[in-house]
Amino acid sequence: MAATLLTLGAPSARADDPAPPPMTDGFGLTQVGAATGTPTNFVITVKTDEVSGPHRIRILLPRDYAAEPAKRYPVLYFLHGASDDPGNPYVAYPALTAAQSMITVIPDGGRRGWYTNWLDQKTAAGAQNWENFHIKQVIPFIDANLRTVASKQGRAVGGLSMGGFGALHYAQRHPALFSEVASLSGANELSRNHAVMRAAVVATLTNIGAPLCGTSSPNCSLNFGPTVSSDAIFGTPYPVFDADWRWNAADPVAHMDALAGMGVSIYTGDGGGNPAEPEFWVQSAAQHAKERLDALKYPSHYVNYGNGSGWGTDCKGGHRYGCWAQDLVDFVPRLEAAFASRIPERA
Q1: For 140-163, what is each residue's pLDDT tens digit?
Q2: CA 215, 220, 226, 228 torsion: positive or negative?
Q3: What's the Rg (C-alpha) of the chain?
């Protein structure tokens, strides 16, 4: 069944079709109910054995998708932050919905799924194989159902906050899948050298606060789901006799070499110099990622917009929607140009 889906693709929608294009179940994903939204900005809900509960996936299509049935499009997989959900309309940033030549897919990453397969699958949260869900199921499902450029050259991954970690993590672990990666205010460093960032991850697991809330909504919920152990994802976070080795192994800064040949973009503010603002700590993680790329002599697009002055109309340098919206104003046109240069012969 999977091979047939990949070969035939999904039926093309007519230019005047008032509904989103039809999607066929497969790759372990079963749709629940009908899609909601418009033909170019819609949400589907799926179930999978890999992650407990139903999960929403928002899909943004370029305006000419229905009118150009022979055309194929590259895809950006955009990963949301902690405490967010693709059902939140704010995740459809203006720069993403205005994209002219690519598809954007925003899959559910859980309120604190951290874009990885958890070490402990027996917590109150249930099955938590987020990496399997996204890499082995969502990507082939999208390629089977939409007219994508289903290759490394036609695929990018980006994300904000928790999703910034996820973007680097997926690009580093699956370099054959992605040609571009972007981290917006990302949790780019999980080593023992960045205890604050590690503590922020633990806080989302134990529900002790929201130091790294990455929601695109105006307000952040302090509830990240059922409380689980601080050891649930990567084992113990405490650096005693190297017991925290899994955290160090998952640290994006330690694996920048895996991004060879990719386009890399990193965005950060400085939180206005206020240590109580999450972006203050995000800045150092971003800087360490940039330093590692420089040491490897890998080119990158690095933006530190400081206190946000001049970076859009609603960015004050914090861990907020206004800054991420402007990050995407900068990133999306560059990504579309990069896709065009990498796949110049695409239909």
Answers
A1: 999 999 999 999 999 999 999 999
A2: positive
A3: 19
CA distances from 222 to 7, 82, 213, 280 (A): 44, 10, 8, 20
Helices (H), the chain: 2-8, 94-97, 130-131, 139-145, 162-173, 195-206, 245-250, 278-296, 321-342
Rounded-to-integer distance, Cα 104 and Cα 90, Å: 14
User: What distance in Å separates the CA atoms of residue 326 and residue 315, rounded to the nearest whole number?
Assistant: 8
Angle of the 195-206 helix axis to the 278-296 helix axis, nearest 10: 130
* Residue 32 included in any domain: yes
Alpha helix locations (H) across 115-194? 130-131, 139-145, 162-173
Do residues 256 and 316 lie in contact, with contact meaning Cβ atoms separated by under 8 Å?
no
Is 224 within 8 Å of 212 (Cβ atoms)?
Answer: no
In a domain, 347, yes or no: no
Strands 180-184 and 30-31 come out as unpaired
Place of tokens 């695409």: 346
Query: DSSP character for 14?
Result: P
Query: Cα torsion at 116, 118, 123, 127 (round to 10°)?
Result: 60
The percent of residues in the chain predicted with pLDDT above 90, rounded, is: 84
> With 90 as the cut, is the pLDDT of residue 343 above it?
no
DSSP string covering 299-328:
--EEEE-TT-TTSSSS--SSSSHHHHHHHH
Domain residues for the domain of 255 are 2-7+14-342
Residue 259 located in a structural domain: yes
Residue 211 CA to chain centroid, in angstroms? 19
pTM score above 0.90: yes
Closest CA to 268 of 167, 158, 188, 175: 188
Domains in the chain, number: 1
List Cβ neighbours of 310 (8 Å cut-off, separation of 6 or more): none
Name the phi and psi angles at 36, rounded to 5.
-125, 145
